[in-house]
Amino acid sequence: MSVSQAEDRIEEYRPISTLAVFALVVGCCSVLALMSQVLWVIPILAGGLSVAAIRDTAVGSSHKAGRGIALIGLALSVGFGVQSFTVFSVNAWIDHSRARETVAQWHQAIRAGEWDVVHGFCAPGLLPSEEVEFDDPDHDGHQHDSVESRKLSEIKALQELPAVRSLAACNKITISDIVRGDQQFQGSLHVTVDVNECKQNPEDALPLTVDLWLNQKTQEEPEVGKDAAGFQNVEIWQIIRVDPSE
Questions:
Q1: How many CB atoms within 10 Å of residue 51?
Q2: What count of Cα atoms within 13 Å lies in the side-chain half-sphere of residue 151?
Q3: Reduced to 3 DSSP states, what percent helix, strand and coil does the chain have, rounded to the nearest 5?
Q4: Are 208 and 176 in contact, with CB atoms under 8 Å apart?
Q5: Whole-angstrom distance, CA of residue 86 vs CA of residue 63
Q6: CA distance 102 to 123
Q7: Which tens digits make up the pLDDT trace of 124-134?
Q8: What is the C-alpha to C-alpha distance for residues 104 and 107, in angstroms, rounded to an integer?
């Protein structure tokens, strides 16, 4: 082999860019962004590494190889990033729509005086046990544990809540804001309801703003249909907190 041929082979050798390899690896990990919004940082990091790798393979005296790898990493980061943003945006829109519908149905049930339905929208534990009162003087220990007695007492307590009384006096409500709950109510939706059009009693000022916290729950219900013979999982929204409550 001549000296000139050896020099040509040395010149043909191009080391692979380390940034390009990292960009490809992080780009593959961008699929994790579909699991949580916190992981959206991964496709952003992958995109930055890919751009840096493309520059690294295009400039400099060594002209490093790996431009194709960097482009694949960039495509993965953009693809998974856009997909995760779209999925979470659509899910948020669906959740907000269902929350609005739940609040509207709850308000209609309150206005119609369908207190069994109103109570059904409420999650267990909405009213602390100390707020549940039994007015029957003849009740014994077994009656305290009666589901019906507790339900009637909770309905009575619901009717006395200032927020519920305000909704009952209002013919039309306006949902002004829907945001994610704080750490205390993580995973819930905080819905702010304006009841400015309610009929106020001069002797009993009702709140003009009602705050509701809703949480999603999955439960089994019988299938509906001609040939239905089993159960299906149904997602429902329950009210877990009402404010003001006193």
A1: 16
A2: 10
A3: 55, 20, 30
A4: no
A5: 37
A6: 13
A7: 877 655 444 44
A8: 5
